[in-house]
Automatic annotation (TrEMBL):
Pfam hit, one: MRP_L53
GO MF assignments: structural constituent of ribosome
Record PANTHER family: 54S RIBOSOMAL PROTEIN L44, MITOCHONDRIAL, LARGE RIBOSOMAL SUBUNIT PROTEIN ML53
Annotated keywords: Mitochondrion, Ribonucleoprotein, Ribosomal protein
Family named by the database record: Belongs to the mitochondrion-specific ribosomal protein mL53 family.
Entry superkingdom: Eukaryota
Official protein name in the record: Large ribosomal subunit protein mL53
GO CC aspect terms: mitochondrial large ribosomal subunit
Subcellular location: Mitochondrion
Length: 96
């Protein structure tokens, strides 16, 4: 997963729900070096919580993408967020 262009990550999940595994894997895929540069917020939801599980990523170009971890596995989430990261990587290569 290309995390170089992330500026903020928000993850809300129930660890015992269907979304638990993919959300935990997503958080684990963020390298420790990026954790100082990128703001990472997470919220552990309870069974009775009214908040919905979500993964939201903001990029350096101010674009924000959201995904529902209930209906996606980790590979699908990584591919979804990598699409925009690859675009930013290409733009960066063209400018240099």
């Amino acid at each position: 997963m290309i995390t170089k262009y992330f500026t903020k990550v928000v993850v809300k999940f129930n660890p015992f729900g269907k979304e638990g595994k993919s959300s935990r894997l997503f958080l684990a895929a963020i390298p420790p070096a990026l954790r100082g540069q990128c703001q990472i917020d997470y919220e552990v939801l309870t069974k009775t919580s009214k908040n919905k599980p979500i993964i939201k990523v903001s990029y350096k170009d101010k674009k924000t993408l959201e995904a529902d971890p209930v209906h996606s596995n980790f590979e699908e989430l990584a591919a979804y967020f990598d699409r925009h990261s690859r675009k930013l990587k290409l733009d960066e290569a063209i400018k240099s």
